[in-house]
Design brief:
The complex is a heterodimer of chains A (124) and B (282).
Chain A (H helix, E strand, L loop, with lengths): L1 H20 L4 H9 L5 H6 L28 H4 L3 H9 L21 H12 L2
Helix pairs in contact in A: 1-2, 5-6
Chain B lengths: L1 H16 L5 H22 L17 H10 L6 H12 L8 H5 L11 E3 L4 E3 L1 H11 L11 H12 L13 H15 L9 H7 L4 E2 L2 E2 L6 H4 L2 E3 L4 E3 L1 H11 L10 H13 L9 E3 L1
Parallel strand pairs in B: 5-7
Antiparallel strand pairs in B: 1-2, 3-4, 5-6
Helix pairs in contact in B: 2-8, 4-7, 8-12
The chains are: A mainly alpha (124), B mainly alpha (282).
C-alpha cells in the first residue's frame, strides 16, 4: 500500500512538473525519476540488482522465493553489522557450497549499493 | 575433518580403480551413481511416484497438476508437430530427406542419446538432424536454434511417446562422458555462481520468486517443451543454454561436448521413464 501511495505521489508530482514547465515531455519526466538514487530496499528488491527477494521472504516484498531463510530479526541474528556484511559480500566463507551468489566478491553490486543493502537487511 | 578424510579416501579409491575399469565395471559404476542421484530425490519427495517425474514441476502437488492438465487440453505444440512431420520427409537440396538419413520416425527419439563407440562421442538426436541436413546440402533450414529443427525435434518426441528412456554406458569412455555430464550438473557458473544442482537438486521444490524449481529427474523424457514464456518449442540444449546464460556466464555451444555429456548423464538418470515429449511448460 505504501508503495502504491509513493507511486501515486510520484506521478502526481511528475504531472505537476509537466504542467509547470509546459514543454517537458513524459520521457523527460521519467528520466528525471530514474536518476533518483535507489534505496537499499529498492536495490534488494530489484530483479537485476540485489534480487534478495528471489530467494528470501522480506516484509513488504511481493512473491518472495523460498530458497533461503526469511530475513527477519536480523539484528538478533547478526548483532555485528560487519558479520552480516561479510555473509552478503561472500556467503561461501560462512556457508560453503551455498547457492547464494557472492554479491560483493563477484561484483554483482557496487560497494555503495552493497552498503545500502546491508543497512536495509540489518534493519529488518 | 573426519568427513574430509573419508572423502579423500573415497576419491583415492576411485582414482586407483579407474585405470583398470572393464565394460561391466563402467555400467555398474554409472548405475551406482545414477541410483545415488535418484535416491536424493526419492528421499526429498517421498510422495512423488518415480514414474511421475516426467511431469516435472507439475508432479510436485495437485494444484500444479491440475494447472498442467488444463494447459494440455488444447495442446499448443500440435502445429509444431505437424510442421516437423512434413519437414522430416521433405527433400533437402540433394533430393534426399532427413528420413533417408535417420530412418523411421517411430521410436527414433527413444534410441537417443547414445554413446557412439566408434567415434567415442555422445550422439544426440538434434545434432544428428543438423549433421544429416548439412550432409544433404542444407545450409540454413536446420541450425541450432531454427524453428525447423525445433519442429522436427517435437515431432520425433511425439513419435516415441509411450516408449521408455533407455540409455547404456557401454565402456570406460562412455563412463567418462557420463561423469563429465555429472560434473557439469554440479559445476557452478557465472557471476551468480549457480550450478544446475543448486536450483534443480538442493533447492528443488522450493521457489525462486513465484516459480517452483523442478526436480532434476525426468527432464529428458519430456523435452522438447512448448514453453509458454517463449510461445514456442525449446529444445533440451536450448534450455541448458538459457539456464547457464541466466547465471550470467557465456554458455557452452548447443550440441558441443559439454551439453552432450550433460544430456547423456541426465538421460541415463531417466532410464525407465516414459517418453512424453513434447510437453507444455511455463
Amino acid at each position: 500500500m505504501r508503495t502504491i501511495t509513493r507511486i501515486l505521489a510520484a506521478s502526481v508530482s511528475a504531472t505537476a512538473l509537466i504542467g509547470a514547465l509546459a514543454v517537458a515531455t513524459p520521457a523527460m519526466a521519467e528520466e528525471k525519476a530514474e536518476k533518483k538514487e535507489p534505496t537499499g530496499k529498492e536495490i534488494a528488491f530489484n530483479n537485476s540488482k540485489g534480487n534478495c527477494l528471489a530467494c528470501h521472504m522480506i516484509v513488504g516484498g511481493d512473491q518472495p522465493g523460498t530458497m533461503g531463510p526469511p530475513l527477519l530479526a536480523m539484528k538478533a541474528r547478526y548483532p555485528d553489522r560487519k558479520a552480516l556484511y561479510d555473509v552478503i559480500y561472500d556467503p561461501r566463507t560462512k556457508f560453503p557450497g551455498t547457492a547464494m551468489p557472492p554479491i560483493g566478491a563477484h561484483g554483482i553490486l557496487t560497494k555503495d549499493e552493497l552498503e545500502k543493502v546491508v543497512d536495509f537487511i540489518h534493519s529488518l | 575433518m573426519k568427513k574430509l578424510l573419508t572423502i579423500t579416501a573415497a576419491a583415492l579409491a576411485l582414482g586407483l580403480s579407474a585405470p583398470v575399469l572393464h565394460a561391466a565395471d563402467a555400467a555398474a559404476s554409472a548405475e551406482a551413481q545414477a541410483k545415488e542421484f535418484r535416491d536424493f530425490f526419492f528421499k526429498r519427495f517421498p510422495d512423488i511416484k518415480p514414474a511421475d517425474y516426467i511431469f516435472g514441476v507439475y508432479a510436485l502437488n495437485e494444484d500444479a497438476r491440475a494447472q498442467f492438465e488444463a494447459m494440455n487440453e488444447f495442446p499448443p505444440y500440435d502445429g509444431a508437430i505437424a510442421l516437423g512431420k512434413t519437414l522430416y520427409t521433405a527433400a533437402l537440396p540433394n533430393g534426399k530427406s532427413l528420413k533417408d538419413c535417420l530412418g523411421d520416425a517411430k521410436g527414433l527419439r527413444a534410441m537417443y542419446p547414445f554413446f557412439d563407440t566408434e567415434k567415442n562421442k555422445v550422439r544426440v538426436l538434434e545434432a544428428d538432424l543438423i549433421q544429416c541436413a548439412q550432409a544433404y546440402g542444407d545450409t540454413k533450414l536446420f541450425t541450432d536454434k531454427s524453428k525447423e529443427l525445433k519442429a522436427v525435434s517435437a515431432y520425433l518426441s511425439s513419435e516415441s511417446r509411450g516408449m521408455k528412456v533407455s540409455v547404456s554406458v557401454p565402456n570406460d569412455k562412455a563412463l567418462a562422458a557420463f561423469e563429465d555430464g555429472k560434473r557439469h550438473w554440479y559445476r557452478k557458473t557465472g557471476q551468480l555462481n549457480l550450478s544446475c544442482a543448486d536450483c534443480h537438486q538442493y533447492h528443488s521444490g522450493q521457489r525462486a520468486r513465484s516459480e517452483t524449481l523442478s526436480p532434476g529427474v525426468g527432464k529428458t523424457a519430456h523435452f522438447p517443451v512448448w514453453r509458454l514464456k517463449d510461445d514456442g518449442i525449446v529444445t533440451l540444449h536450448g534450455r541448458f543454454f538459457g539456464c547457464v546464460r541466466d547465471t550470467r556466464a557465456k554458455p557452452y555451444k548447443p550440441y558441443g561436448d559439454e551439453f552432450r555429456s550433460l544430456e547423456y548423464f541426465l538421460a541415463y538418470i531417466d532410464n525407465g521413464l516414459t517418453i512424453t515429449g513434447p510437453a507444455v511448460r511455463k
